[in-house]
Amino acid sequence: MPNMRPDKVEMPVQDPNVRNKNFDEVALGYTEEMAVEEATRCINCKNKPCMGGCPVKVRIPEFIEKVANKEFEEAYKIITTTNGLPAICGRVCPQETQCESKCIRGIKDEPVAIGRLERFVADWHLANSSEVAEKPESNGIKVAVVGAGPAGLTCAADLAKLGYEVTIFEAFHKAGGVLVYGIPEFRLPKAIVQKEVDNLEALGVKIETSMVVGRVLSVDEIMEMGFKAVFIGSGAGLPMFMNIEGESLIGVLSANEYLTRTNLMKAYIDEYDTPIIKSKKVAVVGGGNVAMDAARTAMRLGAEEVTIVYRRGMEELPARAEEVHHAQEEGIIFKTLNNPVKINGDDEGRVKSITCIEMELGEPDESGRRRPIPVEGSEFDMDVDTVIMSIGTSPNPLLRSTTEGLEANKWGCLMVNEDTLETTRDNVYAGGDAVTGAATVILAMGAGKQAAENIDKKLRG
After folding, report:
1. DSSP code of 378?
2. Mapping DSSP to helix (H, G, I), strand (E, B) and coil, where does residue 345 land?
3. How many CB atoms lie within 10 A of CB 363?
């Protein structure tokens, strides 16, 4: 009989007043006993609705049944038939709006903690298995992947397993994309990302770093090197700004830059001489996961006061509920229904305050959320020395502007065939944030899988 406990087994976490001063992982993971208890809550539905909510179609009830029977390595093997990055997905996927939102147990009680169980299985494997991936026999066909983020890593892994000779061209000096430059250490330890990259290299994938496609090499030059297809998974790393007065002041920066300096360039470690602003009072503009990451990072870097400024209400925050909860526990202030209209500087050109206006919610806009409307005469100033803009990103235009025949929409996202993910350029495919704009890790991975499948179909005729 299933365990009919109504709530999830709680995940142990660091104390908020301790963790907001360090970069160690916040969530500590399940023990074996916790994982088994949570797994027994699954009723193994005949129709498996949870799988319908998973972009990479993990065989969820099957792996959970193995966990319930303490067959943890078998559970890992089941997950990795469709998901090559389970330790990462178990930590950063928005399961509450995907697989867990479809869970039948969630109708009356809390859904099964699918993400926590996936993380447990992956961590158990990493701690207990010495098995190394073996390089498959080569089919002699070369495929190039642009970008070593979630979409590129997934596409490369799936193609390598089919015998393709895959080379990834990565702009940064380290593979991982947003997994290493964007998501903080306290949410996703970089050692875990590196293990996944190591597994990829064991499959025979070559990773060429510091290769900015569009600058060092063009797509045309890659094709001339004997590659039969190219997958573009270059992400959406170009930050957006509000175009308000004062955005050029010292102390205004994008969340992308702030997080890259902290995560990839290790600004939080004293031994690394990475320049970063040492703030006392910080305003983070935006309400998504990146805004939460930036705010929580600023707190850990020593800021005395960190405020999220968001133009809608708490109920409309696009960030994961867990990230908002953790931020609140750690002392982050939420100033919702407010929007910046000006950033004010001192005589030296540095940020000294931010002028905001109060907002109220009107009728829903095209996104389905209620439109924020300024309240006339409600302006006020907040004393801050740093403003971090986290209002979205778009694909960098460098690659498409240097590749003839590669078309994009008005937002700068590459245009693809929805079924095959082939672009307007023959044998050039694209997926992830380069096509959708900024989205989730798991959706990018799903695109990488879809592209790999269609590249294989076309190249094999």
Report:
1. -
2. strand
3. 7
pLDDT in the model for residue 347: 95
Residue 158 pLDDT greater than 90, yes or no:
yes
Which residues lie across from 207 on neighbouring strands?
A: 168
Give the HSE-up count for residue 64: Cα atoms under 13 Å, Cβ half-sphere: 27
Helix (H) or strand (E) run with residue 256 in it: helix 255-263
- Which value, in Å, is the radius of gyration of the alpha carbons in the chain? 23
Q: How confident is the model at residue 221 (pLDDT cuts 50, 70, 90)?
A: very high
Mean pLDDT for 378-405 is 94
Over residues 59-79, mean pLDDT: 97
* Whole-structure pTM value: 0.94
Provide the residue type at 329 as one letter. Answer: E
pLDDT at position 122 is 96
Locate 36 and state its tokens: 């088994």
165: region left, alpha or beta (phi > 0 left; psi from -120 to 50 alpha) = beta
SS3 sequence, 59-121? CHHHHHHHHHCCCHHHHHHHHCCCCCCHHHHHHHCCHHHCHHHHCHHHHCCCCCCHHHHHHHH
Q: Phi/psi zone of residue 321: left (φ > 0), alpha (ψ -120 to 50 degrees), beta?
A: alpha
Identity at 415, one-letter amino acid code: M
Separation CA 450–CA 435 (nearest Å): 13
Cβ atoms 204, 163 nearer than 8 A: no
